[in-house]
Structure formats: structure tokens, C-alpha cells
# Entry
Amino acid sequence: MARMKKKNMRRKDGVWDPLVDSRQARTRAAGVPQTPQSMSPSYRLAYIDDDFLSREELRPLRLQLELLKPEMILTERGINSTIVLFGGARIPEPGGDAWAAKNETQRKNLTDASIYYEEARKFSKLCSLHSAQTHYKEYVVVTGGGPGVMEAGNRGAAEIGAPSIGLNIVLPHEQAPNRFVTPELSFNFHYFAIRKMHFLLRAKAVVVFPGGFGTLDELFETITLMQTGRMALVPLILFGEKFWRKIIDFEALADFGTIAPTDMDLLRFVETADEAWEIISKFYETIDPAAVPMASGLR
# Structure
């Protein structure tokens, strides 16, 4: 009788485990004779049955898997903290084509906005240079993995040989990961909610460049978590004060009373990569990261 043998009795964490692992079982299952019974969908091992895993009833499991997979990979890589970079997918690099423009006004605006592509690229280089001092365990740049400002963030890191993370998502358009994301740190998501959790789980700072609905969603998600005390107060930096104050009338919210006047203190506006990095470096020079207070004042 043929027996399945396990080559290594110890797991990666050093625990002794004589049980055959699921990979070996999968290989054995694939080698059984092809019969009507073994070819039936019901016979497939549940954990390798894509049709089964995609059923509506399995949504809670898929949510858990999307939370676990990137977390396990980032932990194994030793990445302890990140700098989150949000921004528009439609902003071209300097001299590049404003491919998303639908009219001449949009073309001019997007072309002018290419300055943010360049500042995102510079900012990412600054973060990555400091990340190198910790062997890329701290201050690792993470973006949405797509084009535009996201590409600039991953590109700046790649240009100095630093790793960077891309959290992509399945969309009808603009969804392919850019070529500058570190391949081993390129992730893909179905659930927006889990993707947003991963953006903030290791965030030492959140930096937001001009963008559209997606960028606004990410900005307001972050500031709401800080305002309500569900996230520690870390630097939240907005590039392009003129853009943001035109798009969002923050003072009107405070004047109306729907936010507190002090809530504006959660935001910092900058125009250059150097300004942004100075805010972050000074913040962590004066505050112990382990003792960063929650917005409520309580841990």
C-alpha cells in the first residue's frame, strides 16, 4: 500500500507536525483515475474548488482570505510599517499623454497636474531612502498599484532599488498593476473594504495627492477613523492646498457645525516632497510611535 510521506516534520514556526499537508493531498487527489465519480464537481477537494469557493454562502470565508493572504506575506517579509500614498490614476507623468481627458479643459488640468506625479515620485524616493536604513522594515511605500500618482509612488521606490507594495483591485478599467510594484508585494483584491484595511494596518503616515472619487473615499475613510478615535493620530498630508480647498470646503463644514473646528488640525497641506517628509520625520522624532495617542486621547 502506497503511503504519503512528509519530507519535513517541522513547520516553518518550528512546531513538530507529522500530518500530511494539504499540498500533498492535492497532488494525490489529482492523480486518481479519471472516472465519472472522480470527475464530478462534488468530488473536488473543497479548498481547491473555485466554483465552490465563489458561492455566495462562502463570502465570509473569502473576506477572511483577502485579509489573511497579504497580512501573512507582509509579516513574512518583515514589513512593520508603511507610508500610504493615495492619488489619482488619471494624472500623467510630465510630458505624458493625459489619456483620461474627455475635453480640452480636462486635458489642460490633467497635464498641469503632472507636477504631482513628479512630487509623488520624489516623495517615494525620500521614504525609501529612510526605509533602507531599517532594511526595508519601516516606511515602506504602499500605493493602490495602478497608474497615475500610484505608479509614481512605486516608481520612485523602484528607481533606487527599494521594494514597494501595490494593493490593486479588480475593476472594469484602470485595474492592472503598474510595472514598478515589487512583484512579490503585488496584491489583488475583490473587496474594497478589506483593501482599505490593508492600506491602514501598518500606516505611519497617509499622504494624499489630487484624485477623484476613489481618492476622496480613501481620504475621508482615513480622517473619519482618526476623528472617531478608531485610528491613531498619524500624519495625514494633502498635496496641493489650492486643489483641496477648491474641491472640499472644510471651513464650511466647521462653520455649519458638522465637524469640530479642531478637526481641521488632523490635516496638513504641502506642495513638495521635502515638505511632506519633514512633517513625518519631525513627528516621529518628537513622538514615540508606540505611544501615539488615539483621537479620543485613549488607546
User: Anything to note?
Assistant: The chain has a mean pLDDT of 93. Residues 62-288 form a domain with the Rossmann fold fold (CATH 3.40.50.450). Residues 59-77 form the longest helix (19 residues). The radius of gyration is 23 Å.
